[in-house]
Specification:
- The strands form four sheets. A seven-stranded parallel sheet has the order 3-2-1-4-5-6-11, sandwiched between helices. The chain has a two-stranded parallel sheet with strand order 7-10.
- The chain contains twelve helices and 13 strands.
- With 350 residues, it is an alpha/beta fold.
- The longest helix is centred in the first third of the chain and has 22 residues, at 85-106.
């Protein structure tokens, strides 16, 4: 008998891609794809079950299909055809995770749990360390939004791991996921014709390609290879980092520096227009940035991303088409302005 893998959040593009990929593995016998809304994309030969993980019925799904591996991908920053806005997203992230973990705890067949988390758990603050490791505590806990959801989700996962030490638990903290089909607030931000930035700050950013995200989730759902261990918490990001100014040049999109006190107003205006989720946590990221260490990903988990941060962003840029200005011309103009005495060059908060 092969593995029976249950995947949540399959109505999103990344969840659908993972479902189609994992069912091709020879050791996987059956894939159960779960979401509250039917997906618009194909799921291959997977069994789709329309179920809301916020409801106790998810326990019946685990029992009916004798699931041994759960890949929890329904932890996200934005709504998808469910209505209710931010409140609904928080309920799915937090209450949904609680219900799913409660069902896993009672299931005698579940042997492995993989959770899609985020480096947002570290927050973004002025006095952050240059690089976060998996054991670095945040300078200040996120006070709201998706980042706070992630903190709560990981807390519940740690509690589950204590109660079920027989279950291998793998928490993957992804940097910002980008690629041609990326669905995230940052992807929406980079798709704007003009990028609002925080005056005087040039944050460092890391990205992980959606192809690499699918592969590391697949790795975490299987038995570890010799010399590796796929239980624990791991930062997942492509090598290297980019400054926000470098991103704007490569996109060919001009920036509009805004004084920090006015950024919240700009974010409210953008949300009113439906342009992007310019939330307080996004503002903090675009002010202070965030960089994480990936040594454990390589040495313990045994995963090496195919794409660097720069290569990931380049693929994203190709999928979005050229910006308002040719990247080479924009880069030259920005560099000339930055060299002027009154500009003072780039300043980085970290």
């Amino acid at each position: 008998m092969g593995k029976v893998v249950l995947v949540t959040g399959v109505a999103r593009q990344l969840g659908g891609r993972f479902v189609r990929r994992i069912q091709r593995d020879p050791e996987v016998e059956r894939v159960i794809a779960v979401d509250a809304v039917p997906p618009e994309h194909q799921l291959g030969g997977a069994d789709f079950v329309q179920a809301d993980i916020r409801q106790p019925a998810i326990a019946k799904v685990l029992a009916e299909y004798h699931v041994d591996t759960v890949v929890h991908m329904d932890v996200t920053a934005t709504a998808l055809g469910r209505g209710g806005g931010r409140g609904s997203v928080k309920e799915t992230n937090v209450i949904g995770t609680m219900q799913l973990l409660g069902a896993c705890q009672k299931s005698p067949t579940v042997q492995r749990l993989v959770v899609k988390s985020s480096t947002s758990v570290y927050g973004s603050a002025p006095k952050d360390p240059a690089v976060f490791t998996e054991t670095t505590p945040p300078k200040s806990l996120p006070s709201g939004g998706f980042a706070k959801d992630i903190v709560e989700v990981e807390g519940y996962v740690r509690g589950f791991a204590r109660r079920r030490p027989d279950v291998a638990v793998c928490v993957l903290r992804f940097a910002n996921i980008l690629g041609p089909a990326a669905e995230s607030p940052l992807a929406e931000y980079f798709s704007l014709p003009v990028l609002p930035t925080v005056f005087g700050y040039d944050p460092r950013l890391q990205f992980v390609h959606e192809d690499d995200a699918v592969e590391v989730l697949r790795l975490g759902s299987h038995e570890p290879r010799r010399g590796t261990l796929n239980s624990g918490t791991f930062n997942i990001a492509g090598d290297g980092q980019l400054l926000l100014s470098q991103c704007s040049r490569r996109l060919g999109r001009p920036t509009v520096p805004v004084l920090l006190p006015a950024v919240t107003w700009v974010g409210s205006a953008l949300r009113t227009l439906g342009a992007t989720d310019f939330s307080p946590e996004q503002i903090r990221l675009l002010t202070h940035g965030r960089v994480v260490a990936t040594r454990q990903m390589r040495e313990t988990l045994g995963f090496r991303p195919k794409y660097t941060t720069a290569e990931t962003f380049a693929d994203f840029v190709r999928s979005r088409g050229p910006g308002l200005l040719p990247p080479a011309a924009l880069a030259g103009a920005v560099d000339r302005i930055a060299a002027l005495p009154f500009a003072g060059g780039n300043r980085c908060a970290n």
